[in-house]
């Protein structure tokens, strides 16, 4: 049985998925791709991809801040 907010493969739902957010730990912006475990670690982390492309990185979900505003031309949410 899935827990509330569980999207399968241990991915969690988050209202900012597919949006550009700030990682307050690194002061970088990236697109939130997923909230999911990293390897064998049970605690979910936020998976971010630089907006212009590059190497994905992880951070604690509580480090996410300042999501981009939703506008009529905002990209659609991604499915991880």
List the helices and strands and how they pair.
Layout (H helix, E strand, L loop, with lengths): L5 E3 L2 E2 L7 E4 L4 E9 L8 E6 L6 E3 L4 E2 L15
Antiparallel strand pairs: 1-2, 3-4, 3-7, 4-5, 5-6
Shape: globular
Q: Strand share of the residues? A: 35-45%
Task: State the CATH architecture.
Answer: Roll
Got a strand count?
7
Q: Can you summarize the main beta sheet?
A: 5 strands, antiparallel
Sequence of strands across the biggest β-sheet: 6-5-4-3-7
Q: What do the pLDDT scores average to?
A: 82
Radius of gyration: 12 Å
Total count of helical runs of at least 4 residues: 0
Class derived from helix and strand content: mainly beta
Q: In angstroms, what separates the terminal alpha carbons?
A: 19 Å
The level 1 CATH classification is Mainly Beta
Order of SSEs: EEEEEEE
Q: How many structural domains does the protein architecture include?
A: 1
Provide the helix percentage.
under 10%
What ranges have pLDDT less than 50 throughout 5 or more consecutive residues?
1-7
Can you tell me the CATH topology?
Answer: SH3 type barrels
């Amino acid at each position: 049985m899935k827990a509330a907010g569980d999207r399968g493969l241990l991915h969690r739902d988050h209202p900012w998925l597919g949006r550009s957010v700030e990682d307050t730990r690194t002061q970088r912006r990236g697109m939130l791709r997923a909230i999911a475990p990293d390897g064998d670690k049970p605690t979910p982390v936020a998976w971010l991809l630089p907006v212009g492309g590059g190497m994905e990185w992880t951070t604690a979900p509580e480090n996410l801040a300042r999501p981009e505003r939703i506008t009529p031309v905002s990209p659609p949410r991604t499915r991880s």
